[in-house]
Design a protein that fits this description.
Layout lengths: L8 H25 L9 H34 L4 H26 L7 H53 L2 H17 L4 H16 L7 E2 H19 L4 E8 L5 E2 L5 H10 L8 E9 L2 E9 L2 H7 L5 H14 L3 E8 L2 E9 L3
Parallel strand pairs: 2-4
Antiparallel strand pairs: 1-3, 4-5, 5-7, 6-7
Length: 348
Amino acid sequence: MKPINFSNKQINTIAHIVIWVIVFSLPFILYKTNTRPRYEISDAEKYRFQYVAICTNFLWVGVFYLNALVLIPKLAYRKKVTLYFISIILLFFCCISLHYILFKLIVVIYPFIFLNGVLFNLAPFLLAIAISTIWQMWSDKLRSEKLMMEKQQENLKTELSFLRSQISPHFFLNVLNNVVALVRLKSDNLEPTIMKLSSLMKYMLYETDEEKVLLKSEAEYLQSYIDLQQQRFGGKVKINADIQVDSEWYEIEPMLLIPFVENAFKHGIGLIESPQINISLQATGNVLSFSVKNKFNNAVSEIKDKTSGIGLTNVKRRLNLLYGSGHRLTIEQKDNWFTVFLTINLYQ
């Protein structure tokens, strides 16, 4: 069942109508349950009193919106509590004064009893203040949450664009250089290499525009990236990759996993003895288990970390925003091994 969107104008209008039906009916309930009047009054005079009550009801409309749109934003939110309560008291006495004027204009022959007027109007006044306060705070909270969600979505889009640009340009240049070499050698690996590079570019440029992609597509993207890196480094780097997805219908936000793999190749090669990278991706029972492990050189990593790591920071933020407690990310540096372990609860 689709949840009701309370920001919808129609729902908002209905809610206001319900509020005013409650507020407008309260004086009549109080009037009927009140003690017997001091004076015997005719039916015509009863209508006069009811007419005064109806006119007084419109005061509560003004009280509601004055409190919601002026007093709360200008005073309560700015922590001017004393001034806010003084304003509420003055507003009540203004309402009593207007009620007195209405009473004198409509009910001519009966005297106005101030205490009765206060008792009669205090309950609807306080109700209007209470409802308008709750309404305004609730509306502001919804508006704030909506704005926060919009900002977060914009941040996610920005970060995704940044992650795309973070895929090392040197990687593509080296792959293209490999292609040139394969052309010269007339190698049988030329066509598979071009196909992998093509699928890599297609995924980055087109499929990642979607809010979610098939995990299978993300896995194929990772595999193509790893295969091209394997071809690039050959036997210089030992790469162990185990990627298995048991369902074709799992979905995941795009570009969530590649930063960890790219980070492994960025920091797991170079001035490292017997470089090795282990990558594992398993998705079973709606749970994704992903790990990346690479050797690293402490001295070299400390220099690189001053200007790198932005991609990992962004992907951590995306994971927190998208999955919250539905994911667990562990990053360890121990015994010259850098290990990332990630689990995500997937929903089909």
